[in-house]
Amino acid sequence: MNKKELDSKREREKRVVGLMIRLYCRKKHKTKKELCPECQNLLDYARERSDRCPFMETKTFCSNCRVHCYKAQMREKIRQVMKFSGPRMVLYHPILAIKHLIESKKEKRQIERDK
User: Fold this and answer.
1) Measured over all CA atoms, what is the biggest interatomic distance in the chain, rounded to whole angstroms?
2) How is 78-92 classified by DSSP, letter by letter?
3) Of 56, 78, 82, whose CA–CA distance to 67 is shortest?
4) Are 40 and 96 in contact (CB under 8 A)?
5) Nearest 5°: CA angle at 113, between 111 and 114?
6) Cys-Cys link to 97, which of 67, 76, 89, 103 (CB 3.0-4.6 A)?
7) 17: Cβ contacts below 8 Å, ≥ 6 apart
């Protein structure tokens, strides 16, 4: 994977996480345009983790990664966001959600084959 493709993949991951955090914040914290400080902190943290990910070239999603680089507290927060926003993404961002499901299934199959 060349640098341009890798950068594109990082940006796509950060975009998806951002959409999920925004949806969560809008529905749970009743925000309109701006994220609440807690969700903004989580988004900044997730972006930083994505920027520093050494496995970006070979992984598709953090949930499928062998190494979890999030601190325990942040990992729990992102899990809550994913659990809430994941099913709702089909309503708010259907194409993105379907692509995510397909890629996730492919990666899980590949992980099973590699064992």
Assistant:
1) 45
2) HHHHHHHHHHHHHHH
3) 56
4) no
5) 65
6) 89
7) 43, 46, 47, 50, 78
Please check whether residue 81 is in contact with residue 42, taking contact to mean a CB–CB distance below 8 angstroms.
yes
Task: Look at the chain and report how many structural domains it folds into.
Answer: 1
Segment 77-100, tens digit of pLDDT = 999 999 999 999 999 999 998 988
pTM over 0.85: yes
- C-alpha distances in angstroms, 72 versus 27, 58, 62, 76, 91? 24, 24, 14, 6, 30
Residue range(s) defining the domain that contains residue 96: 3-114
Give the integer Cα–Cα distance in Å for 22 and 28. 10
**Could you identify the residue written with the tokens 């972006």?**
47
CB 29 within 8 A of CB 39: yes
Is the pLDDT score of 40 beyond 90?
Answer: yes
In 3D, which of 22, 42, 20, 32 has the Cα closest to residue 90?
A: 20
Structure tokens at 93: 């961002």
